[in-house]
Amino acid sequence: MAASQTLIDLAQTQRALVAQYLATLAPNVSIDPTSQLPPNPPNPLHVLRDSATLLKAHTTKLALLLINKPFTPTAVTSVLRDATQTCLPAMMSAVELCRPDIWGVFLHHQVVAKVRTVMREMVSFLEEVLDVAREENSSNHSKNTLASTGVLWEACDALILLDKTGIAGLAVLKAQELRDTINDAIEELKEWEEGDGDDDDEDDEDDEDDADSTSDDQNERDDQDEFDDMFSAANKLPKDRLDLKERLQTAADKLKKIQFLYAAITKRRLKTFTPDVASKKVNILTLDKLMHLLKELPESVDDLANAFYELDADQVDTILNTCIDNACSAADLLKTDWNDKDDEFTAWVTKWTSVVR
């Protein structure tokens, strides 16, 4: 009983500590750029890889100890102490090492998000440890323990993959994700333009009903039609809004060209962002600016779609121009290569900019 209580106390203490870690990793919390780093600090991605690999090994042992009989609290306590007092502090140290002024805002945010996921899943795992310790004679925990362990493994794998992928690979994946978001918006706007195709049938039915209706019925139907028209814009492009139809075709054409830009940037710039390139701070800053612009574009495209749905032609023009300006800024940012020299992409950007404007 004393051994079980020791385990419970440890799990509760570590749960409280992980909660503090999570508070530190909150999205609105920033790292002090003036904090002193140790001399010759290790690569934070390597630290995350090693600590995540070790945490997976520890949680594997813990899962086996939790589900197998007889339950041995002392063994669980020993492994849990090793896991929580070595792996988790190492991950938090890696977050501090991955300062945005050194490694870039983009990578820093990726690291924080993935470490936060590990800590969040660690809380769930500690809850499972507590449940087993409090009801050690129960045999109903195996499924929950394995599920909790599996989710924690996935979070650790994401940290390990972070090191394998590197900053260039992360940027490529993010750019592809953002490009897909723009493509989804284009497809949704196409569907909105086409509507559901039932209008003609409904109109025919209305004409037949009108022939048999009284004046009161007709007035009621007219009121209902007016009400329906007010809320139909979100589902389809009104046939009488030829101005919006023309704008929609223009927007779709411009957005497709912006998609081409994402693909070209990915191939010509992001995939050439080697460790040597990343070692220069000016390139890290450029990448941060680029990823910020690439992230803003799908958000603006979403605003553009909403402007269409609200049938606001002026807003459509304004937001589309913003999208084009941001896309051109992204293209101009990478017009020269990472060594600030012209290449094939330089000429392509010049031509692309003249076409998309």
Automatic annotation (TrEMBL):
Region ranges (Disordered): 189-227
Superkingdom per UniProt: Eukaryota
InterPro entries the record matches: GCIP-like, GCIP-like_N
UniProt cross-references to Gene3D superfamilies, sorted A to Z: I/LWEQ domain, Talin, central domain
One GO CC term on file: nucleus
Stretches assigned to the Cyclin-D1-binding protein 1-like N-terminal domain: 48-194
Biased composition (Acidic residues): 190-227
UniProt feature coiled coil, ranges: none
Pfam families the UniProt entry points to: GCIP_N
Protein name: Cyclin-D1-binding protein 1-like N-terminal domain-containing protein
